[in-house]
């Protein structure tokens, strides 16, 4: 990451873009702005933020080695295409977003990557968790980003890590995917928000954990059911891919240490009952991705460096 | 697999060894014998069978490029060590079985590998299923052998593919692993045998499917519950690793096409309800490993060639 020049990383979401400049392996600057919708909106928002970031650290856009960008939706990194990024108002398939953004930036090379993949790359890097990692993203949905021996596992149909749609409760509630009882109905931020509406704008996860810590029996029940489902997600990742590190990320991590402690306690309880699970030592591999870390923008910059060595 | 000489593949199990000679990419001969117990027993049984196979195809042991052997238990392929292969009466850890067998064979190189891995390599090869494959082994237990983009995925603690110990029924029956309701209690040959004892020596799986086909309502229920659990195992593999091919193997495949048809029908039913699963097109990736194929011995020979190119 030293050598050829700084890299900008962009985490492009449906409502905002979060960016950073990575120079010599260090974050030299960060900035955010709102995302305008549609192809033209995304391009101009992203190009604006790149310019803001460059001004912030006192360089020209032409000084950049390149730009890496993480996007929701189906991303073809090799061809620079994004499809069905409906959160950003891009319903089209095979939109050549990487070459379009590159042209907007005077020919600066651009690499695009799926947002869960960049979050995984960034979390593994910032937590110094090596190259064999699953990031459990506990947000609106539930999915795992997989980096196996350094290689991102996307899967044959782009569905690797879609553990949120494994059945957790037989004949459970209806999921938007068309199945019933999917794990993400129990182990996601949205699941928690549905069970514990938080009228004052605090994240539902923080509100539930606080109320539970104060002894509210309903909150204790909601928290414990959520934590058990998250632990089940961890077990699924551990007993399929057996990665060296399992990282808990996503919006729910605003709860902080109490979330990690609670999930760890459930798994330690299982390990006390099961020699097999004790041997697997899953709890020892579990870590929390602090919500304040710029994992996705940093991961986006690193995603660029994976494709175009700098 | 042409060039430097034929390779013997051995599938060493607790009661018998099944071997083959692979020459020029073709199976030139096969043979079986009983496995004697303990380190000395396994070494002499294996060395005997290598000699029998060589005589059968008219070559000397010294003409072999090498021997690949699949073993139950924890195998360190790089160092040639096996640990805790209790099925074969080897309770010890770190037994240098590869160098010991090599010495017994006059210095012929020997590579050892986990039995599930060799079955996966062999099944992928014989079914021409490419290099991105999960083999669901439905035998005494349930586990998945994983080959991801050509690389065997063993996992950080050797637990990759241990899907049999993911919970399938909350508070279900006790599993020998110490947990409750594990998937292998519902989706394995042993599970079927426990629910449908087959007094006349026929495999329980064949007996259940036959009785169900003749309309026995108990058999229909046992069969359908088993098939649903196998389908759940397929979904777990598809929504974690998203491999290109999912192969059904193990003793249960003696049922043949009716097993594949039944599992496929369950998954097609899910796909009819779920656009997400329809997009994943899991049923299209499902294939049966015919029980009569010598997948494990062929895979063992190929495992040798993966380590020592011939």
Write up this protein.
Chain A is 38% helix and 20% strand. Chain A starts with 6 loop residues before the first strand and ends with a helix. Chain A is globular. Chain A is an alpha/beta fold and 310 residues long. Chain A has helices spanning 38-57, 97-104, 115-126, 189-195, 204-213, 217-240, 257-273, 275-280, 295-307, and strands at 7-12, 16-23, 26-34, 66-71, 74-76, 81-83, 110-114, 133-138, 142-148, 151-152, 245-249, 286-288. In chain A, the strands form three sheets. The first copy, chain A, has a five-stranded mixed sheet with strand order 3-2-1-4-7, sandwiched between helices. In chain A, strands 10-9-8-11-12 form a five-stranded mixed sheet, with helices on both faces. In chain A, strands 5-6 form a two-stranded antiparallel ribbon. In chain A, β9 (142-148) and β10 (151-152) form a beta hairpin. In chain A, α1 crosses α2. Chain A contains nine helices and twelve strands. Chain A folds into two domains: 7-118 and 294-307, Nucleotidyltransferase, domain 5 (2-Layer Sandwich), CATH 3.30.420.40; 128-288, Nucleotidyltransferase, domain 5, CATH 3.30.420.40. The mean pLDDT of chain A is 95. At the A-B interface, α6 and α8 of A face α6 and α8 of B. Chains A, B: This is ROK family protein. Chains A, B: Belongs to the ROK (NagC/XylR) family.
């Amino acid at each position: 990451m030293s050598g050829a020049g700084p890299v900008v990383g962009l985490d492009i979401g449906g409502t905002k873009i979060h960016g950073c400049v990575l120079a010599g392996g260090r974050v030299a600057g960060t900035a955010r702005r709102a995302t305008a919708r549609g192809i033209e909106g995304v391009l101009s928002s992203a190009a604006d933020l790149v310019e803001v970031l460059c001004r912030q650290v006192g360089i020209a856009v032409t000084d950049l080695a390149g730009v890496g960008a993480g996007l929701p939706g189906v991303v073809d990194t090799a061809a620079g295409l994004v499809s069905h990024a409906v959160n950003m108002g891009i319903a089209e398939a095979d939109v050549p977003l990487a070459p379009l953004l590159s042209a907007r930036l005077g020919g600066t090379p651009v690499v695009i990557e799926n947002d869960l993949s960049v979050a995984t790359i960034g979390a593994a890097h910032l937590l110094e968790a090596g190259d064999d990692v699953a990031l459990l993203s506990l947000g609106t949905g539930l999915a795992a980003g997989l980096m196996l021996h350094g290689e991102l596992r996307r899967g044959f149909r782009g569905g690797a890590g879609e553990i949120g749609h494994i059945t957790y409760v037989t004949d459970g509630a209806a999921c938007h995917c068309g199945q019933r009882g999917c794990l993400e109905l129990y182990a996601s931020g949205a699941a928690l928000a549905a069970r514990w509406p938080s009228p004052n704008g605090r994240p539902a996860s923080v509100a539930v954990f606080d109320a539970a810590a104060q002894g509210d029996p309903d909150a204790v029940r909601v928290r414990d059911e959520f934590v058990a489902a998250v632990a089940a997600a961890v077990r699924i990742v551990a007993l399929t891919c057996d990665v060296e590190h399992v990282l808990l990320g996503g919006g729910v991590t605003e709860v902080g240490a109490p979330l990690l402690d609670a999930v760890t306690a459930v798994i330690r309880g299982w390990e006390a009952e099961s020699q097999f699970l004790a041997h697997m030592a899953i709890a020892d591999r579990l870590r929390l991705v602090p919500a304040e870390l710029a994992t996705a923008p940093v991961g986006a910059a690193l995603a660029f460096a994976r494709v175009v060595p700098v």
